[in-house]
């Protein structure tokens, strides 16, 4: 009997292959009830979402965090008159400041309702060897379940959780590993969404220069990517007594403005935040952070080049100009050739020869349509 063609050979039925990674969990879009974004601080803090505050040490990140906590406990209006949805409880995780002599006096100066604020200082665990109860430092990679239990006990009263700084509460999670940070932030956000509170995370800036603001946050880029909003606290270069809080990114708002504030001293000798009355343009964040990362000499050179660039832009505003004339005018204005070349590069000035015997002429780049 002739064998069947290979294409007609009957194959045994496939056996289901167990998936060691587990089974997929799916949810149909038709089963999801849409919900509006819920604001705690409009365009800054969102219920169920993580917001990141970043900045160099000593510029007021923790002071702003204290002010935010105080406003939540009283339901006080936000800066620039933005509405606060109502008073609630606050849970603070703080590793750098002492509650007794620093944080609580600042909360008092900010007008907080202290009865609505608690500090998460440790977790009591059973020692695996002796079985005795021991106190462990809070590690968010291990203690997310305890955070969920705190929120459950609050029964809807918890409105804000602050983590200052996040690096002190990572536990075994690697701050430079994207997968570790994304997993941690996702876990925090899941608990925040389930129990309806906002999450404020504080971090520092790295020492890089010349980078966009999103790349200046210390650790993995996942910190900024996972946060729904990120604001940078920095010194106002035009007023040493004033601080700026400027948006680095915001996935839930369009064209977010920044804020300004100064630090005043209350009757109990503790500092508090006094917010400015006018919004600050969000377009200045990258330039501000770049300026803060430069040395005094680099800042002077940068300022000089910007000055020369303004002059050169004015010279070329009405069309091409002979390069020889520009070099003569620049010398008359006291500008060095190095500064002129730097300004030329900054503006993207084009050089071309006009005619067979013509000399070089410079012109501004053509505007893109």
Structure overview:
The chain starts with 38 loop residues before the first strand and ends in a 6-residue tail after the last strand. With 369 residues, it is an alpha/beta fold. It has helices spanning 61-74, 99-109, 144-154, 178-195, 222-226, 285-293, 296-315, 323-332, 337-347, and strands spanning 39-41, 45-46, 50-55, 89-94, 117-119, 123-126, 133-136, 158-164, 198-203, 229-236, 239-250, 259-265, 271-275, 321-322, 350-353, 360-363. The protein is built from nine helices and 16 strands. Helix 1 (61-74) packs across helix 2 and helix 3 (144-154) packs parallel to helix 4. Strands 5-4-8-9-3-10-11-12-13 form a nine-stranded mixed sheet, with helices on both faces. Strands 14-16-15 form a three-stranded antiparallel sheet. The chain is extended. The protein folds into two domains: 32-282, P-loop containing nucleotide triphosphate hydrolases (Rossmann fold); 296-363, Arc Repressor Mutant, subunit A, CATH 1.10.10.
